[in-house]
Amino acid sequence: GDSVTQMEGPVTLSEEAFLTINCTYTATGYPSLFWYVQYPGEGLQLLLKATKADDKGSNKGFEATYRKETTSFHLEKGSVQVSDSAVYFCALSALNQGGKLIFGQGTELSVKP
Amino acid sequence: GAVVSQHPSWVICKSGTSVKIECRSLDFQATTMFWYRQFPKQSLMLMATSNEGSKATYEQGVEKDKFLINHASLTLSTLTVTSAHPEDSSFYICSAPTGGTYNSPLHFGNGTRLTVT
After folding, report:
1. Which residue of A has its CA nearest to B49?
2. In sequence order, which residues have a C-beta less than 8 Å from that of residue B68 and are 6 or more positions away?
3. Is A65 exposed, middle or buried (0-12, 13-18, 19+ CB in 10 A)?
4. Do A43 and B34 touch (CB under 8 A)?
5. How confident is the model over B73-112, as pLDDT tens digits?
6. Is B110 helix (H, G, I), strand (E, B) or coil?
7. How many Cβ atoms from other residues are within 10 Å of residue B91's Cβ?
8. Which residue in B9, B43, B54, B59 has the most chain A C-beta atoms within 10 A of its own C-beta, making it the best mutation to test that interface?
9. Closest CA to A52 of A35, A70, A22, A32
10. Which chain A residues are Cβ-neighbours of B43 within 8 angstroms?
11. B44-51 vs A56-59, strand pairing mode
12. Strand partners for B40
């Protein structure tokens, strides 16, 4: 079945460091891909999305490009801030799944001043 | 933006009792609601999909008699954990798509932390 695999955390970075969180997926057909973020004590929020190959989603300085050839959707940010500390979830949604999301295991990011 | 209100945010109950969790879509009609469960340091696992006016669809391995889901209106879905036991302690999250397509983002409630003693 469809699945999403993320790099394991926790990831600890210093402020202004470059961030990459790897995400790869397995799916039949052409899923839509999402990154969600969960700040401490809060629910999940959509960070960005891409709906077809080569699309780039971006928001709040974060970017991810839908790479069909490598079945990847890696999350990147050029300069992280302390306020970016959160858990990041990669997810996919496929047409034959009725809109439900399949999540990766989440990657905890901790940014130190 | 679209808001999903989930209540309560936390609840402690005794083993054997039932707990009801409510999710309301505040500014849109949620014909579908997804219910997830999240264990500490783990991902969200889909439990069931509820559709307004029809029976919920449960994922494999989820006990439908234990986790009762009702979606009686376009703005309210409820999850009732019946005869709760300590192993049911978890973080429960509801979510609903605001669009009609499979690539519509989901809007999540803030979750309910259930502790069964």
Report:
1. A100
2. B79, B80, B82
3. middle
4. no
5. 989 999 999 999 999 999 999 998 876 655 677 888 989 9
6. coil
7. 17
8. B43
9. A32
10. 89, 103-106
11. unpaired
12. none
Indicate the SS3 state at residue A65.
strand
pLDDT digits (tens, 9 = 90+) for B23-71: 999 988 888 899 999 887 778 899 999 988 888 999 999 999 999 999 9
DSSP-derived 3-state class of residue A84: helix
- B33: its two tokens: 């609601």
Contact (CB, 8 A) for B72 and B55? no
Question: In whole angstroms, what is the distance from residue B115 CA to residue A92 CA?
Answer: 30
* Residue A91, Cβ density class (10 Å: 0-12 exposed, 13-18 middle, ≥19 buried): buried
